[in-house]
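Write out the 3D structure for:
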Amino acid sequence: MPPIIFSLINIIIYLLILIPICIKAKRCSLRHNATDHYLANRSLGFMVLFLTIYATTFSGNILGVSGQAYRSGFTWVMFASLVAAITSSFHLVIPKLRPLSVKHHFVTPGDWIRFRFGSHTHSLRILVSIVLILSLGNFLYAQLKAAGEIIVVMTQEAIPYEAGVIAFALIILTYDILGGLRAVAWTDMIQGLIMLAGFACLGLWIIDTSQGIDRLSMAIAEHRPESVKVPGFTTQVQWFSLMVLGGLSVTIYPQTLQRIFAASSDKALHQSMAAMGIVALFTSTVFLFTGWVAIPLFSLDSGFQADQVLPRLLEQWAASNIWNRVSAMMVLLAILAAIMSTADSVLLSVVSMIRHDLLKTTQREGLKYDTTITITLMALVSILALHRDITLWRLMELKLELLIQCFPAFIIALHWRKLPAASVLAGLAFGLTILGTLLALGIKQIAGVNAGLIALGGNVLLTGFTYFIQTILLQSDNNQLMPK
């Protein structure tokens, strides 16, 4: 069977499996309201919750991470520590936020802002929501771009990049509209299992191909000596900067926060996060070795796109025999599943925030305008995703730099009960101004410290300063003490 036909058959079978799941999820909807549509009526048990968090977290970024490992060499081992920082940082959020979300029926991140600072703090809630929506818009853009790249490789360019992006967007629209979070979570469960199987195949192939870390290191040193050098001080600062950036920002992903709200019980949530920590280490290791194995195989030149490293490896692997072709197809389907699971979750979260967090009041009954918003948003992002100039890793960095500016509004405010809205609003506006200025000047880092962290530093400093002025020097009463 020709490889193109083989690929298309597998893609069609994969998509056909998801359609009945979406229909079943639609039929299981208990009420036509926001809680049921966006949180599956808070019914996600351990297995579904674990697999949906896993599938959503490890998205099309696998292409960006493996590409960056290919470009940077062994210095990119820090990605494993970044993943560890992310899984550890959830301990800053879950113990306090989860009980509040259950007691006060949170559906969107804006519900936390309403609860914490009062329903009258419209400016802060709207600015936070805009930052989160822009971050997730970036995320959705990255998933569509990654899907287009994968489709091109799977079909050997028989389906062009643009057609892959549009087809993928239509599929995501279908089961986002059909079943909400319940359909997303159930399909994520299938996709998570495909991801685990596919990445296991990839890991076994890497072990066989590399012939051990010693031989891989010698091959890399021969082809690109600078990739095995001990990193200097600036690179080590970059490592630490990226660890902090990722660890603090990923914990406030809106789609992850909504998974916390949607868990059926505290036990299911804690078990899911524990399992996630173990599986995340395995997955990140596979990502890293994928990039390193490619170094001796492909020369680093301007004509080779880093985001194409993994697809090109799989293309080479599949050409050897029929069993490797099947295994390579499993890996490609795993990547496609990761991309789809993230894209649908992101789209659902963005629509929920546009619908319920940008307005002064939130209407929880009925979903009259949600479908229209979903279609419009996906159309806009799909048009943007037709441009391929920016790398997936750079998109991820921009998303994290923007997200982390909301850290005081969520994590600091969660633990500092007397922090007023005015201080958080001033800090957030200042942080965004610093970040925008640095990006406009083309400054990605200073002395190894990421631009997003520099902006966060100014954000936190002004937040603390305005609090000091308001409560100490002016001796004003703080009437925004966090409710219990």
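The longest helix spans residues 161-210.
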